[in-house]
Every structure is written in structure tokens, then in C-alpha cells.
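Q: C-alpha cells for this one, please.
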Amino acid sequence: MSVSRSRNVILATGLLAFAAAGLAFPYYLVALKSKPVIDSSKPLPPQAIIRGPYLNTGSHDIGPDHRDYRKK
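A: Here is the predicted structure, written as C-alpha cells:
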């Protein structure tokens, strides 16, 4: 095995290890965070109670606007 071939094998192995680590990282984060974001045994914080009814109320799509707007 020549020096350039061994370097290519080392480089390919390193690239494959880097790609495998990058692909495994999201799964690792999910496995690390096993507890839920909101604990259902505790009451909601005041910020969540205040925001609750208003979440996504301003983004209703009612279709295209057929009115003609003229510049003043």
C-alpha cells in the first residue's frame, strides 16, 4: 500500500465518521431530552396562560383581495 493510497483511506474513513456523527446527532439530542417540555403535573406559567388564546389568531388566510387600491 503506497503512502497516497493510505492517506486516501484515512481521509475517506474520517469523512465517513464525520458524516455518520452528523447524521446521528439529531437522534442523540432526542434521546438525551427524554422528559416533556411542559410538565402536566404543574400548573401553567402565567405567560402561557396569557398567550394561549391569542396563538395563531392573526394568520387566517381569507383568500385574494379583489379590491383596487389606488395610490393617493
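A few notes: Residues 1-34 form one domain. Helices lie at 3-32, 46-51.
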